[in-house]
Amino acid sequence: MKMASKTIKYLLFLSLLGFASGARSIIAGFPITFRNEKNCTVGFIGNNEDINGFITSALCCARDNCNILNGEESDEVYEVIGNDGSNDLNLIGAAYDIKFELGYIFVTSILEAWNNIPYTKGVIPEVLYPVTSYLTLNFKGDEVCAYGAKSGFFCGTLDEINASISILNPLTDKLDVLNVNKVHLGLRGFGSFEDMGGPVYKRIDHNGNMTAQALGIITNFFTDDRTGRHYFYYTPIENILSEGTIKLTTYSGPI
Q1: Strand 51-57 and strand 45-48: pairing?
Q2: Rounded Cα gap, residues 160 and 165, in angstroms
Q3: What number of other Cβ atoms are within 10 A of residue 84's Cβ?
Q4: Strands (E), the chain
Q5: Lowest-confidence pick of 54-58, 76-80, 189-193, 221-225
Q6: Which end of the chain is more exposed for a tag (fewer CB within 10 A), N or C?
Q7: Is residue 160 classed exposed, middle or buried when 0-12, 13-18 and 19+ CB atoms within 10 A define those classes?
Q8: What Gene3D superfamilies does UniProt report for this protein, alphabetically (predicted)?
């Protein structure tokens, strides 16, 4: 009965967003592709100096830094249709602003056919959580959840705070050091590049109604060969917002 109620709420939510009229909605966890060359996941909805769009991983660029910094036309970003992404004819927007040293890129989604909605995919794709705020975790052992477009939903525990990993910057051909947090997932976890950039959040239970507080975006993942345990790194959302140009779009309605 509880599941049926949630399903009804979800269908009502989709109808309110205008799905019946052909409008489409972008939420955290949405599958995207850069130039039909690199498939990734939408992180969180935001605003960059009055430009609407979303953040995802800087590693999703199909060309060097999406060519934003080279004065050329930037990477176009499409919806992924189908499992192989080969029919991605629905243009969403384009790469707009990149901060490789912070691990993110901001993508515009300003076409009239697309709405930006501050929700994230949850335990299954049909379950959506409103994103109400962002949060900084300071204690190891806290629960952390994340969603990747390919691998789906996982929760684990915060294993390391302010870790450092090195990522090759394609523009400079040098290693950039990213400040990230490390999460332990257990014997199952993320395993596809398509999960990169996906939303990382903390779930908050409001008497059975779940919301999400944004923690960051998926930056990397790995499996310990000795133990078979899965881990992932995320770029903290406060690092991204600290630049001052991006504002997180949040839900402020009834829970």
Answers
A1: antiparallel
A2: 12
A3: 9
A4: 24-28, 31-34, 38-41, 45-48, 51-57, 76-79, 91-99, 104-108, 114-121, 128-134, 143-148, 152-169, 174-186, 199-206, 209-223, 230-236, 246-248
A5: 76-80
A6: N
A7: middle
A8: Trypsin-like serine proteases
What SS3 state is found at 69?
helix
Domains of the chain: 2-117 (2.40.10.10), 128-235 (2.40.10.10)
Would you say how long the chain is, in residues?
A: 255
State pTM to two decimals.
Answer: 0.88
Mean pLDDT, to the nearest integer, of 8-34? 63
> Which pair of structure tokens corresponds to residue 83?
């499992």
Helix (H) / strand (E) containing 11: helix 2-16
Can you tell me the distance from the alpha carbon of 161 to that of 108, in angstroms, rounded to the nearest whole number?
A: 30
Average pLDDT score over the chain:
87
Question: Above 80 in pLDDT, residue 16?
Answer: no
Q: What residues are paired with 143 via a beta bridge?
A: 157
